[in-house]
Amino acid sequence: MRGFGVLCVLALAAWSAAQDSWARYRVLVRNAEEAQRVSDCELGLFSEQVSIPETDLIVGPQEQYKLWALQLPYTKISDLPNPYGWNRLPRPRTINYRTAYYRYDEIIGQYEEWRAQFPQYVTRQQIGSSIQGRPIWAYRISRSPVVSTSVRHVFMVNCGIHAREWISPAVGLHVFRQLIDSQINGFTDFTTNFSLRTMLRNADYYFIPVHNPDGYEYTWTTNRMWRKNRRQNTSTTFGVDLNRNFGTGWGGAGSSGNPSSDTYRGTAAFSEPESRAIRDHVNRIGKLSAFIDFHSYGEYILWPWGYTLDLAPGDAWLRASGLAMKTAIAAQHGHQYTAGPTASTLYLASGGTKDWYYAQFDAASYTVELRDTGQNGFLLPASQIFDTQNEAWAGFKALALRMHLR
């Protein structure tokens, strides 16, 4: 038996050594226990979250043993580019946010350009700082330069909470610019109904251009597939998943207490300065009508709850609005997004943004998982940016036009 054990160890070592490149593997996840096992593992997620019946993982060189240790059926899907070589790829000299991805400073620079051009509509506020000291900005679009508690509706858009999801900040830029143009045009592109246009004019729109600036920059300089923020957890582990760090359902299934996991939830709810910045900002506003957290990938429209399989109290309205978004998105380029509550549509995901906003403010809260359905995943080609932006704008408008029904 001892000789057999040595042979097994040698075979495993040889098998691991044979994996000398990055690859995407799909594991079969059949129940809650197996899903939590995947959540706690140290392999990177290629899926947006752990899901039943299958989840895609990133396996790097010498990491086959981690895949084997899960003791789950798996299939290799494809090779992946080295995420540590991304910063060496050339960029065009002239870039446009509709055709190229922007770095963090370029994103903020574009918002600042619009703030200078349209001071009657656009203001900004630093709502906090990241773990490494980068400012977290909230940009506001309103017909009033002064924040007023009498405004009827507040709509908030969050972008870039997961670092590697570059299409999210790109979509935020487009939706923000479309809203500026709509303000200038009197919202005639929203609706021909005068009373509804009046209501929309009385809404304030807040955008968080990049919720996780440290992680986002890290995807440009070091590791293209990085997901979390850049907190140092131990001497060798970094990062908290900010979308598992919010208070509602914190610590539950679909998150992990392992600091090496991609879904590591942190030491406590709102342990991270990035999460606290958003929480404190909305608490200062004191109200919230609607919220969208743009993510990738998978083409989903998801609403509460994520931390439990129970239906949210307002599920009927959330469903109707989610389906309206789905219809509006499909009308652009034919992409049929899947719509439903997070937990029953994918799997449990505890401590997420939309659950907290819904529980705290009864806000119409959605996660929109943008393109695509898995062929490119987080590495969505720049050629698909503009079409994805158009789909997101259509979904945004569909939700904005339903706010008056609540």
What do these coordinates show?
The structure is a single chain. This protein is α/β, with parallel strands linked by helices. The radius of gyration is 21 Å and the shape is globular. It has twelve helices and twelve strands. It has helices at residues 2-18, 32-40, 64-69, 104-117, 167-184, 194-201, 213-221, 273-285, 315-333, 342-345, 353-361, 385-400; strands at residues 23-28, 44-45, 54-59, 74-79, 122-129, 135-141, 153-159, 203-208, 290-296, 300-303, 338-341, 364-370. The strands form two sheets. The protein has an eight-stranded mixed β-sheet with strand order 5-6-8-7-9-12-10-11, with helices on both faces. It has a four-stranded antiparallel β-sheet with strand order 2-3-1-4. The model is unreliable at 1-18 (pLDDT under 50). α4 (104-117) runs parallel beside α5.
